[in-house]
Amino acid sequence: MPFVPVLHAEWIKIRTLRSLLGGLAAMLVVTAAFAALAAADADGDDADPLFSVFFGIGFGQVAAIAFGTTAIASEFRGGALGVTLAAVPDRRRWFTAKATAIALPVLAVGLLTGLVTLLVGRTVLGDSGPTWAEGLRGAVGCALHLTLMALFAAGLAAVLRSGVATLSLLIPFLLIVSFVVGDLSGGVADFLPDRAGQVALHSTWNGALGPWSGLAVTALWTAAALLAGAWTVERRDA
Length: 238
Hints:
This protein has helices spanning 3-15, 18-40, 49-54, 57-73, 80-87, 91-125, 132-160, 163-184, 193-197, 211-235. By secondary structure, the protein is mostly helical. The protein is elongated, with a radius of gyration of 18 Å.
């Protein structure tokens, strides 16, 4: 089967699962809501105005991870993957189509999330908010980061073949390692996938990475996870 029909079939699966649509909606709502709270609580000159606007991405990325995980893990329940591979014997083509079907809606919703969050943050902060040029960079960085984290989770879910195992690993990692251990480990933690991608959401950053190099580090983590996921799908029985 050619790639485009496979992609279309995978998109139908995604848009007909309420949990996945809910995950996309949660990315927007949670990110914007926590951004409004953080912006309202920003402490004047001591706050990073851009990160005050996009503070909510720390919670929005959890929804992105849940989306990518669920989209892949659903294939390992009830023999669904066996049925899929009966129609699409080329496993690499199927996995590429699945990853694309995950990335495109997350990127689209991520761009909308970034723009809505920027507007909300600037409304709350007023003149102390980031400039439009800085804010638009943050909005694009927000979309790319959410997309990369969703794909990172998808690749890991393909390796573990379990949504529960994937979320049990990633959620504590984000909420404990990144927030607690990360602040105590010096510059090493800046190269973790979630922290590296969020450099683009800061007005200034004292670490080794810049906005785009940080996203590049997250992209490398994502590529490694997807390659591992593709290898697992190729080698293991459905």
